[in-house]
## 1
Amino acid sequence: MNELHKLLSVLDEFRRRLVRIALVVVPLFGFFLTFEVRWGRPSFLPWVVPYPWPSPFYNVSAQVFELMRTDMLPSGVTLLNVGVGESVVIQMEIGLLLSIAVGMPWIVHEVGAFLMPAMRRSERALLKNVGIPATVLFFVGFAVAWIWITPFTFLLLFKYVGAMGLAPTISAESFLEFALLYTLAFGIVFELPVFIYSLTRIGLIAGGFWRKHWRAAVMGCLIFGMIITPDNSGITMLMIAAPMAVLYFGGMLAAERHQKRVDRAKLLTIPGGAA
């Protein structure tokens, strides 16, 4: 009965945390689907500021989609609405993504509060140390893909389309899926140094392991770039594999540095080790 009581208590805490997350994410989702952001200058301010305005059709999700189309697609490419409700689904997908992104600090807080009692002190310290770097690296990777990688990939792909004499068109759903997959995947890729450092920090993998197997890691970066890219030119594959390799070596150096600190601390605890 005691074990059952503990299980029910954990499930109740999990439900409570989910409800608290939903109380933030759901209103954000509703806002992104029913309001647009306009710019204006109030009479009491000397500068232009953004403000929400009710707009169930041209909302924040639609504005983000329009920004993606402007930033990522080459000029002359036509987006097509293939299905009857495709535009609605697109707005809902973007709205959900925005809701999760904006509410991520609260989501991380609630998830951390749920997991914290089950963590050891070293694991809690690790989460505090890597939380900010992991967030920064994700948004840097996302921005690099948005500004550079994804637009170049679309440009390269439509070069093939033009060479075959085909009309440069793409469905709105296909465009959104590809653009989000690329940008989100690149944001996750930028977490590689944090992943490497964390495995060494918790003692699961020794710091010297990463240098010993760097050739296999570079090959893995090339294979990953080949799988995720839609063309066979090799250019986009290298555009993904090269930053991955750099990130791997950065994580390797951080892991080795931590391993040296651990080894030095162990040496000092051995009688006569500091001599």
## 2
Amino acid sequence: MANLKQAALTIFHETLAAIDIPLSMRRKLGRAGSQIFVNGAPFDLAVFEHICAISIGKASAAMARGLAELLSPDFRAEGIVVAPTVASGLPKGFRAIVAGHPVPNEDSFVAGRAILDLLAATNQHTLVFFLLSGGGSSLVELPLDPGVTLEDMQALHRALVTCGASIDEINAVRKHLSAVKGGRLAVAASVAMKITLGVTDVPEGQESALASGPTLPDPTTILGACGVLLRYDLFPKLPPNIRARFEHPDSIPETPKAGDPAFDSRRATFQILLGRHDLFHAAHHASESAEFITVCDNSTDNWPVEKAVDFLLAQLEALKQANPGKSVAVIADGEVSSPVTGDGVGGRNLAFVLNSVKKIAGRKVAVLSAGTDGVDGSSPAAGAVADGETMGRAQNSGLDPSDFFRRSDSYTFFHSLGDTIETGPTGNNLRDLRIFLAE
């Protein structure tokens, strides 16, 4: 069974290598002389007097490097990179800002001001690349109303993320207070040519959730945002500065919508650089190369962790029954719901594998779940891997997986067994990846 566990780790690491951002940028955009191709349409770099870039998110440094490599040696961009950790090896001409994640901080405000200042200097002869990845919502922030303070925005964030609201509902509220979310960066560079490239951890069709959609028309409304606050009884929990504004929603400017000149297709385009399809393709290829009959399943996104584990193990068993004598694999992506019920160290990926331990005990099965960004919850790990022998090893060490699960201490459990996956921040941010193997 150790071979299955090692095979799962190999598939995960080969998948990470295959979703290399600079490589993907060169492959998907191409370059022919002075032209690059976005969504298949040519853009002539030579017609612009100035090229700048705004790179925001966990993958911001890699995206900036990829853009510089694509443009080199004939063209050069300059701009701003906003990341949650120190970015090394940035191209010449880029200013690095390390800002707050998952909660905005003062440097998030610094980043917001710097970006708006840069965009204010653009004109019809400017090409602006917006390079977006997950985490951007907290990394770049600035209130529309200068009377709203950082402390106000932090208090709003805490109220929203603890009330049970979905990410779409959370975004609907904060977009309407922000000068940089919900299409407002596109408006800030209205007459410039704008190319937005996304490395996305959100499902297809929800691209406006990526970094809170700073360059896309906003589908949410002020009335919808007020509905969220009412639905979760948040008005009493809001800072007075913010509560007063939502109590008089007509005082809040609506976010820009489809039809605004800033989104005119002649001056703005958006392309997913890496997304779910790319993650599945890479993982499927790595699994098939390891001689596993493989299927991909994306139906468990946002499911409770126990339900997702049971469903995917059933899928694995059905695939095994259909292919007797063969090694089989089920690949899944997306996020699962794993409420925190204790004060331990862990995350949803670690919790997912921990919930699997008893269910695969004694079976020739391995389960891996990890974040492609290299970070899982409050832990220093990306995730963990377990197999049919993990339960026995845990019992021999006096570890009860149910107890650790109840205390939300999944990292401590797997770290004690040497089964955590610790990559450090990968500089990427696609979906969580789950790998189920059986023989």
